[in-house]
Amino acid sequence: MKKVTLKIGISAIIFLALMTLVITHHATGIDNWGFGIDHGTILDPNTPWMLEITYFSSPAIWVTVLNLVILYLFFIGKRYAAAIYMAFWLDGAIILATVIKILVGRHRPLHQLILDSGYSFPSIHTMTAAICVLMFLSLFKTHNAKYHLFQVLAFVWVVMVAASRVYLRNHYPTDVMGGAALAYLWTNLLWYLNHRWLHIIK
C-alpha cells in the first residue's frame, strides 16, 4: 500500500503542477518546446499515420466498447460490484476530466490540422488511452514475459496517442501530460480504495 500511496502523491503533484502552470499561463515554455519536437503539416508524410492513431484512439470508441463489457459483466456475468467499480473507474475519469476542462477553460491551439472543439486541458484522448491500458494491466497483472511485453507496448501506444494530439495541434504538450497524469492518479486512487476497503478486485 505504501507504493500505491507514493504513486498517488507523485501523480497528484505532477497533475496539480501542470494545471497550475496552465491556469497561470506559465506553460508556454514547455508547450513551445513540445511543439518544436512534434509539430506536423498537412503535406507531411507522417500526417496520415497520426490521423489514424488519433481516430483509432477516440474516447467515444473505447468508452463505448468498455461500457458494453461492463454491461455484460453486470447483466450476464452477474458481477455487480466489479461492473460498478469498473464503470466508476472509466466513466468517473471522463466526468472528472470534463469538469476540470470546464473549470480550467483553456482554449485549444491555433492552426489545428483537423478541427476539434471544446476546451484543451487535460487531453481526454490521452487520459482514456492511459486508463484503458492501466485498467488492463491492473486487472490482469502477472509477472511473466508476455505481461512485461504488453507493458512496453502499452506505454508506446499511450505515447503515440499523446504525440498524435500534439502533432495535429489539437492539444498543447502540457494537455497530454496532464491527461496521462490524471489517468495515473485516478487509477491509483481507485486501486487504493479497492485494496483498503472495497476488496472487489483481487
UniProtKB/TrEMBL annotation:
Keywords recorded for this protein, A-Z: Membrane, Transmembrane, Transmembrane helix
Q: Name one Pfam family in it.
A: PAP2
RNA-binding as a keyword?
A: no
Taxonomic superkingdom: Bacteria
Q: Residue ranges of the Phosphatidic acid phosphatase type 2/haloperoxidase domain?
A: 83-191
Does the record bear Transmembrane in its keywords? yes
Q: Which SUPFAM superfamilies does this UniProt record tie to the protein?
A: Acid phosphatase/Vanadium-dependent haloperoxidase
Transmembrane annotation, as ranges: 53-75, 82-104, 124-140, 147-168, 174-193
Output this protein's name: Phosphatidic acid phosphatase type 2/haloperoxidase domain-containing protein
